[in-house]
Structures are given as structure tokens and as C-alpha cells.
Prior knowledge:
- The protein has eleven helices and 14 strands.
- By secondary structure, it is an alpha/beta fold.
- The protein has a seven-stranded parallel β-sheet, sandwiched between helices. A three-stranded mixed β-sheet has the order 12-9-14.
- The longest helix is centred in the first third of the chain and has 22 residues.
Amino acid sequence: MSRNVLVTGGAGYIGSHVCVELMQQGHQVVVIDNLDNGSPVALQRVEQITGKRLRFIQADVRDQVAVQSALVEHGVDAVIHFAALKAVGESVARPLAYYDNNLNGAISLLRAMQGAGVTDLVFSSSATVYGDPRSNPISEDFPLRATNPYGRSKLMIEDMLRDLGAAEPNWNISILRYFNPAGAHPSGLIGEHPSGVPNNLMPYIAQTASGLRDCLAVFGDDYPTRDGTGVRDYIHVVDLARGHLSALARLAQHPGVIIHNLGTGTGYSVLEIVAAFERACGMPIPYRMESRRPGDIAECFADPSLARAELGWSAQLDLAAMCADSWRWQQANPQGYPDPS
């Protein structure tokens, strides 16, 4: 069933990949993005990959009037919400900015959806809502105890959505808790290129391999893991994007509020990621060991069985594909997206 889908933050890393999958499956896409963390070139390349057109509105999701107008004008019947600030470290330094952007953005969007009569929503949450887990793998019924403003903002929005679903049962809301997105589209046309120093491991490794960075800093070599470095569940961004389409299809069955982990169920250490990237790019990645960062945890990986059972979704692309696709994107776009001007 083709739908008219509004994607907030659709010019960003994950949002652009979701736009590709939506358009390839025949959905009509409208993007709202303020371009703080996105690029209009990404949307041009989404159109290049798919051979189809999307509609783009440059606006902040906190502008309720602009969002509601877009919903009504384009006959939107479902929303996928990405627009948010997303760096854990930055959230610790700038908590008010994170609460303002993420919470007020969500409230504005939900009010706009109410005004337009749109009640199907897929929300981009995060495994950070689990904090430091009691054990691994992590299932959806684990305690929720976010340990930083970014994670707390996601958890507060989850609480809002649960309250909204209880108060207004006509809403159908999918909450997707991501683990660690990595990789790029296999075309090499869209991928992750953060401004400034990368917060995520894979783009930092890719920039080191390409010579943009001298050396990778590995924070902590004394964790209780197999090689002493932190272990995380890395999921290919294309697999992650396809998970959103599975969630969107599930909303058509009117399930109310549903929550799923999107991960692979396998944890890789920092040094294992470095070794895999070395195999992909054919050269050594220089790195140095540094002390642990405050707030980092030893190990975190998903139990993805609920998504497999209820959404019919599971990750298909392995670590080798994540590294190969990241390297292809980095080689083709060493400075990220070009300035559209």
C-alpha cells in the first residue's frame, strides 16, 4: 500500500537512507529539515538513486504552523520522525539546547499531527534509553535509565508517546530503539559525514584511513571485554532504514504503541571494527589508546528477536559490508557533501 509519508530530518544520515527505501517501495515522500545536520545535496542524491522526485520543505520541526501546513497540503497519512540533536557528548555540554530542540520539536510535531488528523508515527529512539544495562543482550522489557541529556530526551519523548497512545487510542505509534548505525548506501552517493570531529566510530575510522585525521583515539583498553575495548552492536544503515518500512507496514494493522529494538544481536569491540575496516580499505589504521571517557559503558548489544517476530525484520548486512560501504562513501566524498551554493 502506497502512503504519503512526511520524514522530519530527512536530509540527515539515517533519514536520507529511509527516504531511498520509501521511494523504492512506491511511497510518496515529503521531507522537512532545517539543514542543521543535513544537506540538500543528500536529497538530490536520493532522487538520483531512486529516479523519483520528493518534496522538500526547509523548516524547523518546532514550527508547528509550517509542519501542519505540510501535512495538510501534501495529504500526508504517516510521519517518520528523525529531526533531533543527537550527540551524547554535546548533550552533556549543552543540555538546554537538547531539551529545547528534541522535546519541543516532538511536541510541536504531535500537535501539528493532531491538527491535521494524522495518527500514524514512527519515532526514532535510541538504545541509550537503557543506560548501562544489567546484562546483554538487551530486550525491550529492560529497565529504562538513560544516563545523559540526549538519552533522557529520547526517553521523555517515549513517555509522551505512551501517554498520548493511552489517552487517544486512535494513534498508532512505533518506537524504534536503534543500536549503532554504520555504513552507507552501496552506491556511495549518500552516507555519514558529520561536521567537525566525528562522534561515531565508523566515520572517524574512515576519515583516519583517508588521511583527514592522523590517528584514531580508542577510549579505554581495560573494560571487562574480550580485548579490553568497548563492545557495541553495529547495524548497517540500510538494514536500519528497512526496519522503518517494516514498522510503517505494521502500523497499518492499528497496533497502538509498539516498541522494538533494531540491532543485529552481535557485539563488536573497537579493535574488531578497526581490523574489519583495515580489511576493507587494505591499509593499517593508526590508533592510540586513551583513558575511558566518562559515561561510556563496557558492552551493549541488542536482542532483536521481537522485531523479527512482530515486524518480520532482521538485519541482513554484515560488518564487512558496513566497512566496505563506509570506505566507498569516504573515498567518493572525502569532504562530505559539496556546498550546494
